[in-house]
Amino acid sequence: MGLKTFKALVVEETPDGRFVRKITDKALDDLPEGEVMVRVRYSSLNYKDGLSAIGNRGVTKNYPHTPGVDAAGVVAESSSEDFQPGDEVIVTSYDLGMNTSGGFGQYIRVPASWVVPLPTNLTLRESMAYGTAGLTAAFCIYRLMDYGITADQGDILVTGATGGVGSFAVAILAKAGYEVVAVSGKVAEKKFLTELGAKEVIARDEAVDTTGKPLLKGRWAGVVDTVGGDILSTAIRSTKLHGAVTCCGNVASPELPLNVYPFILRGVTLIGIDSQSCPMSLRRRTWEKIANEWKLDNLDRQTTDCSLEQLNHEIDRILEGQQKGRVIVNLPE
Ligand SMILES: NC(=O)c1ccc[n+]([C@@H]2O[C@H](COP(=O)([O-])OP(=O)(O)OC[C@H]3O[C@@H](n4cnc5c(N)ncnc54)[C@H](OP(=O)(O)O)[C@@H]3O)[C@@H](O)[C@H]2O)c1
Questions:
Q1: Fold of 5-118+299-330
Q2: Contacts of 297 (CB under 8 A, 6+ apart)
Q3: How far is the CA of 164 from the centre of ligand 1 (A)?
Q4: Which residue among 41, 60, 168, 178 has the highest number of C-beta atoms inside a 10 angstrom radius?
């Protein structure tokens, strides 16, 4: 291969401890070891990328660094029997974009064990409309269903509903036949959420109870929470007998003010979701569901495209909680 450098967004730490982002040419030789090198065609923006871009050491320890926990593209080189040059593939999570150079660059090099063949019914761009956020929403729903929550048991609450995980949770749940109530801080986006399939949209303050009551009126058969804090606490205390709640995020708070009563008096189950370490078998099964029975009809409704140059602004917006749906990053030649 004649090419020696590629374009990437790089986050650098300045001597006075600030973090700055710029588009630079990176050397292919500087990519980490790995069996599969992928020419990235699309990436997408997740909240975690925002944290990596501002120097959050819980996400990224060493800088300079290229974030991007998601990538979809074409295999450029492979020493693995499982992948050949020209194969279309998806790589999400594991260590991609955390301490491994990520999808906000035209090339990544990763272990073959991180690589998922693109499902037949999905394009590379569509896969990045979902990305880690869509995959995480799908995991949450998969776990609720697996637990036994069915559509006839009642409403499912989705929090952070206009965000990446939230908007895909609303849309996939509606597609799977569930009645969805969406919580959002963006009152102006009621129409967006209704079009995605929410039957009702409630404001954030209506979804928060700080009275300290251990149990509230049981309203939800299940909950997909993406924000944590008082909203998650309220959701758990408002879950009906033997309902289940998935927990995947902390944009509101990592705290969970709660006592044991929802668990011991109502048999509520709290299900933790960690897409990063999700086993490959479940990962592939979930991508297949996304590409087939859960495939959404109008992905463009909840996606915005941007270039590497426009990404800086989109990173600021996700950190401010202002994104609606998903941002797909285009990485053309
Ligand atoms: N565990 C995992 O495997 C996993 C995987 C992916 C993501 N995550 C986590 O899931 C969370 C959501 O990720 P994302 O990519 O969907 O982020 P996102 O696109 O930024 O969506 C988050 C949404 O939460 C709401 N929100 C923002 N600030 C809030 C606040 N202070 N209080 C209450 N709600 C607030 C906003 O929606 P509204 O305006 O509609 O309320 C926002 O759009 C993040 O914490 C992320 O790290 C975890």
A1: Quinone Oxidoreductase; Chain A, domain 1 (3.90.180)
A2: none
A3: 7
A4: 168
User: Quick one: CATH architecture of 133-272?
Assistant: 3-Layer(aba) Sandwich (3.40)
Report the separation in Å between the CA atom of 66 and the middle of ligand 1, taken as the mean of its atom positions.
21
With b meaning 16 or more CB within 10 Å and e meaning fewer, what string describes 49-66?
A: bbbbbbbeeebbeebbbb
Q: Which amino acid residue places its CA nearest to atom 33 of ligand 1? A: 252
Report which DSSP code applies to 151. G
Q: Give residue 9 CA to ligand 1 midpoint distance, Å.
A: 23
Question: Does 333 score more than 80 pLDDT?
Answer: no
DSSP character for 237? H
CA of 248 to the centre of ligand 1 (A): 9
Reply yes or no on whether the pLDDT at 175 is more than 60. yes
**Residues 8-60 pLDDT 10s:** 999 999 999 999 999 999 999 999 999 999 999 999 999 999 999 999 999 99
CA 85 to chain centre: 28
CB of 55 shorter than 6 A to ligand 1: no
For residue 152, pLDDT over 90 is answered with yes
Q: Is the CB of 186 under 6 A from ligand 1?
A: yes
131 lines ligand 1 (CB under 6 A): no
Based on its alpha-carbon atoms, the radius of gyration of the chain, rounded to whole angstroms, reads 20
The full set of domain ranges for the chain reads: 5-118+299-330, 133-272
Q: Is pLDDT above 70 for 2?
A: no
Q: What is the pLDDT of residues 106-146, one digit of tens each?
A: 999 999 999 999 999 999 999 999 999 999 999 999 999 99
**Alpha helices (runs of H) in the chain, residue ranges in sequence order:** 47-53, 124-147, 164-175, 190-196, 229-237, 261-265, 280-291, 311-319
pLDDT for res 187:
86
